[in-house]
Protein: Biotinidase
Organism: Perca flavescens
Amino acid sequence: MADLQPCPLKTDPTSSCPSDGRWQFNTNVVFRSDGLLVARYHKHNLFFEQSFDTPPQPEIITFDTPFAGRFGLMICFDILFYEPTVALVEKGVRQLIFPTAWMNTLPLLDSVQFQQAFSLGANVTLLAANLRKDQYNMRGSGIYTPFSATYHHAQKGDPEEGRLLVARVPVLDPLWVGKNVTTKEGVVRSESTSSTATDSGFCNQESCSDSPPPENASSVPPSSATFISSMMFDPFTFVLLNETEGKVNVCNGTFCCHLQYRWLPQGDSKELYALGAFAGTHTVDGRYALQVCALVRCAGLDASSCGQEVEEAESKMDFLLEGKFGTRYVYPSVLASKMVLEQPEHLETTADGRVTMKHSNMTGGLVTACLYGRMYHLDNE
């Protein structure tokens, strides 16, 4: 909702108070079950919202519940920035509320694709409620944990109506799990908070699994026939997948992505895939620094179509996608045909920034497999 707040008129030249003496904020409100207002958050990262002001300071807002502990608040475009979203996670908040009016942008930022990616990459529960407005391509909501995704993504031509989603999810609040909790079987167990309370949620241990490290990506030379093509307004360096299986490398500057793959074409469908890499600052409709590795289905059979929007695919792919990132904030996604999400089989992060995503046995054709790294520390350079 909108919130109107009086502010001191500009006697002070550094004041951000508008000339009419009031701020207007895009606002989340939280009510307790008895109707008491318990939290209010003003959106910090506006997206072409001429009616609203940016608050003078980013707000880091949480509230406590009797049923699942602590939750944090953010709105829409906030999810792509450090404040408040990552600031909340780094304070130990593991459960986030996310109302949004998200315009889907393929191949990398479809609503449910990035909702799940953020939940996995930040190791949090995300409750995401999107508008349903086909005119602006707004659709796709869900309830995500690092272990599950319950979501709805309307298809073109579906009646324009809402959908109620219900899911049972584990409590992730580290201060809450230390209390006695009753499991579904009625067994009461007590958990120590010592290991989890300090975990910021981002997977930055030596390794998040016990499996042996994959072969060093740098041992495979960059594939020769690279080309530049625009993907979501950024100049990605691509290499085509020309075999039914193999290994390819592609670099954008010093940032390199590695792919090991087995392509499983279905029937006689002809499709083209490419591996793309980008390291730089995205500057269209917002400014934010990225390092991205993405395996995408191209829109046509010509290399110039790689990076364009695609919603459907028939080819399945077993793959290992890997990059060495200059950030620990990397959000992984596997998007299958007709906006179906797949839970990556295996994710691993090493202390030196190498992120590996392994997946096989796809249920549908592969549209995008992506490691979306956010270089928050470079946003203002």
Summary: The helical segments are 82-90, 111-122, 174-177. Residues 69 and 176 are 6 Å apart (CA to CA). Residues 226-378 form one domain.
